[in-house]
């Protein structure tokens, strides 16, 4: 069996359409939407609405950890729009989802990222696309567990949940051969982004489950430029499958 795994697609429909080539199945670990691109400030929902210059200002404030100023700036800009800002966002999110789900190869097993809007996904699913969150699927004789979303942060992205709710999903998955999450386990070297120069949040519940159950693999994304892309926890190979928007190439898992 050969499975291709992607995470942090962030709008790369062109590469996503090819991501399943030569594989028996595709796994997508979320973050389909592109809100703002830290590398190309003209790309994403925010610059579509307010321009690349405003996007660059927002990114600079966030990178400097001036989060209150970033939120105040965003609030001023959103207030300039006619109507409810949420309607402007949802229209653009839906446009991205329509393109991305149409490009998604089948069969594919998907879970949510922290910037995704789970309530919208059902509108774009088609046969061969299966969404799992706190659930298990058998693929090629192995048990794959899926845990979507992220934990609460200062960024307040759409699908961030409480530690207890996240831990409950990890517990519901139980013992598996491959644990698939959007965010990494709480191992510092897996959480530090060397370009953004900050630690992202990882899951203590995932780390405890890996230490206790020792799956063959723990696969995740979320950290776009990790200090370490992989490490071992006992017999478990922990792998950041890569920033798909940046690389356009899936991680290959064979057995």
Automatic annotation (TrEMBL):
One Gene Ontology MF term: hydrolase activity
Source domain of life: Bacteria
Pfam families: Metallophos (PF00149)
InterPro entries in UniProt: Calcineurin-like_PHP, Metallo-depent_PP-like
Stated name of the protein: Metallophosphoesterase
Species of provenance: Nonomuraea phyllanthi
